[in-house]
Amino acid sequence: MALRSHRLSSRRAPPRFFFVVFLLLVPVLVYGIFTNGRKISYFFRPLWDNPPPPFQHLPHYYAENVSMGHICRLHGWSPRSEPRRVFDGIIFSNELDMLELRWRELHPFVTKFVILEANTTFTGKPKPLFYAANRNRFAFAGGKIVHGVFPGRVASRGSHEDPFVLESQQRGAMNGLLRRAGISNGDMLIMSDTDEIPSPHTVKLLQWCDGVPPVLHLELRNYMYSFEFPVDFSSWRATIHIYDRWTQYRHSRQTDLILSDAGWHCSFCFRHLREFVFKMTAYSHADRVRRKDFMRHSRIQKLICQGEDLFDMLPEEYSFRELIKKMGPIPHSASAVHLPAYMIENAEKFKFLLPGGCLRS
């Protein structure tokens, strides 16, 4: 009995051993939580956050060589005798290639391209007026362009101003610029970011049909880095409005109605690596850059070609099923079908946006 007791006691680790192990593990756990806290919170998001109410998806009908009258009636609308005027309003940062694609695609349908850019980023850093410096590139749009400059506020050293407040102020300034552009009641207004591009046939449908809801979100195909990496159909912030005196320029949810498959949203779709770095430090989510090496060109290039997340983040999902399904790199696609026509017509110029063109300069 004494021998058995001795054997059992010899198998037990002394309490001091567990205490030492605990002391060694605490710094590791603290460091892990500190460096990966956001990733951990995103993983457990389904436990602490609820999804917004679901959208009511409106079917979207389109085929080549089908009359507009027939297409309008398929949607439950009626054809107009003449098209609405269309105003395309965007807040611009540095997405010059996406701006060219957008305006080339929409040029036949848009009355005025209204573009507002600031001399500071949303994070309060001074920035060049990229559009103004490259105005000649967009001469094809001629008198359709109404350009405004928003006098941004430079953040003082050590300050922690909310970038979403600065973004909201800039979007609010768009209302005055739209009025200066001549928008009036009954015109159609597109509210979206530069890289959220409605398809031309979507704009044509909405400008030629009566009965269109006064506010309607556009469901866009979501891409990352280029059209080689299709993500999903989760992009919903783009909207069209039948303008009236109460219309306010916003980039948030404004109705439960959304028109299915209405265009493209190509995030971080830049030609040059320096443009990636600029956006990573300039836009409203710049706090995701947690380490300086995130901006190293070789790292960015590697992640672009792999379809990996630049910020080492997990997907923002409301269920573990969707989160786990989207973890890991975005699958490559070899399809270049149903993409902006101007890009396909100028494939050599825009090869960095097409399958197989992931290498950047």
UniProtKB/TrEMBL annotation:
One of its GO terms (biological process) is N-acetylglucosamine metabolic process. It comes from Escallonia herrerae. This is Beta-1,4-mannosyl-glycoprotein 4-beta-N-acetylglucosaminyltransferase. GO terms for molecular function: beta-1,4-mannosylglycoprotein 4-beta-N-acetylglucosaminyltransferase activity. One of its GO terms (cellular component) is membrane.
